[in-house]
Amino acid sequence: MRIDIITVLPELLESPLNHSIMKRAKERGLLDIHLHQLREFAVNKHGQVDDTQYGGGAGMVIMCEPLSDCIEKLKAERAYDDIIYLTPDGKTFHQKMANTLSLKENVMMICGHYKGIDQRIRDLYVTMEISIGDYVLSGGELAAAILVDSIGRLIPGVLNDETSALTDSHQDGLLAPPVYTRPAEFKGLKVPEVLLNGHFKMIEEWRQEEALKRTAERRPDLME
Questions:
Q1: Mean pLDDT within 8-17
Q2: In terms of C-beta density within 10 A (0-12 exposed, 13-18 middle, 19 or more buried), how is residue 217 classed?
Q3: N or C: which end of the chain has fewer CB within 10 A?
Q4: In this model, does residue 163 exceed pLDDT 60?
Q5: What is the pLDDT at residue 199?
Q6: In angstroms, rounded to a whole number, what is the distance separating the alpha carbons of residues 124 and 141?
Q7: Closest CA to 160 of 25, 32, 26
Q8: Is residue 2 within 8 Å of 30, Cβ to Cβ?
Q9: Rounded to whole angstroms, what are the CA distances from 73 to 4, 38, 65, 76?
Q10: Domains along the chain with CATH numbers
Q11: Which pLDDT value is given to residue 224?
């Protein structure tokens, strides 16, 4: 899978995308990530990519020309399954979206900044608008990193144990059950006996019951 990310601050993405599981995914040739500095397509020698809003108001807006030039350059090199704009007014990201996107071959992400991007870019190029929650960040870079991580870990071969992702919270519409490891007793708290008896059918039934219980308590909206 290849992901191209357009940003004015590529350095914000370098660390989260070059360590841990994402690093492993790239080293195995399963995930190819390219960061594109929007200022390379600036409208003048000063590196300008933003301007004031028509109609007045606080905050600058990323201009059409730099973004269009960058997008057109990338589109001339390959076809994209989706062009995603990270924005607070997009559709809230969830696990099913991550599952769907992990099956794509080429995806482009546009990181907004300042007050956002000119609406005409959204009208002309963007196929998906995604929000990671009901709050506002300084830019779309951290949101893009979250998307890449959640998508990349689902690509077959990225995780050492591919069944691990299948038991994550939200993968089956429920929150994951409690998990335990050694020691069997810690500060008077013991691991549930069912997890120690080696009876896999009973263990799976316990985990399902605990997942339902936890979901009902913490996210009753998911039970609907």
A1: 95
A2: exposed
A3: C
A4: no
A5: 96
A6: 22
A7: 25
A8: no
A9: 12, 12, 12, 5
A10: 2-152 (3.40.1280.10), 169-223 (1.10.1270.20)
A11: 80
Q: Average pLDDT in the 179-208 region? A: 96
Least confident of 22-31, 51-60, 126-135, 170-179: 170-179
Contacts of 99 (CB under 8 A, 6+ apart): 154, 171
Percent of the chain with pLDDT over 90: 93
- For residue 64, give both structure tokens: 């059409």
Task: Determine the longest span between alpha carbons in the chain, in angstroms.
Answer: 70
Cβ count within 10 A of residue 187: 5
pTM of the prediction?
Answer: 0.90
| φ/ψ (deg, to 5) at 172 | -115, 20
Strand ranges (DSSP E) for the chain? 2-7, 32-37, 50-52, 60-62, 82-92, 106-111, 128-131, 185-186, 189-190
Is 161 a residue whose pLDDT tops 70? no
Residue 80's Cβ-count burial label (10 Å; 0-12, 13-18, 19+) is buried
Dist. CA 67–CA 82, nearest whole Å? 16
Name the residue with tokens 């399963």.
30
Tokens of 131: 């929000």
How high does pLDDT run on average in the chain?
94
Q: Which residues contact 92 (CB under 8 A, 6 or more apart)?
A: 130, 131, 132, 133, 134
Distance CA 206, CA 187 (A): 23
